[in-house]
Amino acid sequence: MPYVARRVPTTEEKRNARVLFNRLEKLYPKIGTALDYEDAWQLLVVTVLSAQTTDENVNKVAPHLFARWPSPDALAAANPEEVEEVIFSTGFYRQKTKSIISLAADLVEKFDGVVPQDLEELVTLRGVGRKTASVVLAEVWDYPAIAVDTHVRRVTNRLGLTDESDPVKIEFDLMALHNKKTWSGISMRYIQFGRDVCDARRPRCWECPLADRCQYPDKNPPP
Ligand code: SF4
Description:
- 56% of the residues lie in helices and 0% in strands.
- By secondary structure, it is mainly α.
- It folds into 2 domains: 11-31 and 145-213, Orthogonal Bundle (Endonuclease Iii, domain 2); 40-114, Endonuclease III, domain 1 (Orthogonal Bundle).
């Protein structure tokens, strides 16, 4: 899907977004996924495995998985029962086994086993949505892409950067607000901020460095 801005933001809205991003950059000068990976292929796989579990759990399992099936070709030809045994502790292991084997097969069939550096091509792979594709593009190649997960959705809505709930619409709202050069660094910072400060149930508004610009009406007082 080509990028289409739904509404052109005002200069003041863009300035506000830049101030917020600058503060987040100060808070998190360096940011990246906590998932361990060596290349785009591995990041795709560990991202699938990370659903409904912690990154730590995935990091324990991934080295065994990639030692045994080191390439998309190898994993595409793997015995599912053997893969299930290896990734068992990440939960939903049957579904995840199916997903990563079909992802591997798809990658081999469509792209000769090489992960494409293009969002529209990435999302043609089975099990790869815009969020995963954007994570890979931004993380591995520093390409301008914004992944919208539950943290990004919550935080940007509370801050008033968007009033959408659909991830694709939020992605486009954020792209319209932020300078393209910063896109690859946006998601991970909002995700970390959502985990550390702007918690889903109990946001720590009393110590939030963005509070003066936040439009959330139910800000929490100190405990
Ligand atoms: S003031 Fe509260 S709701 Fe707003 S961004 Fe900060 S923690 Fe989140």
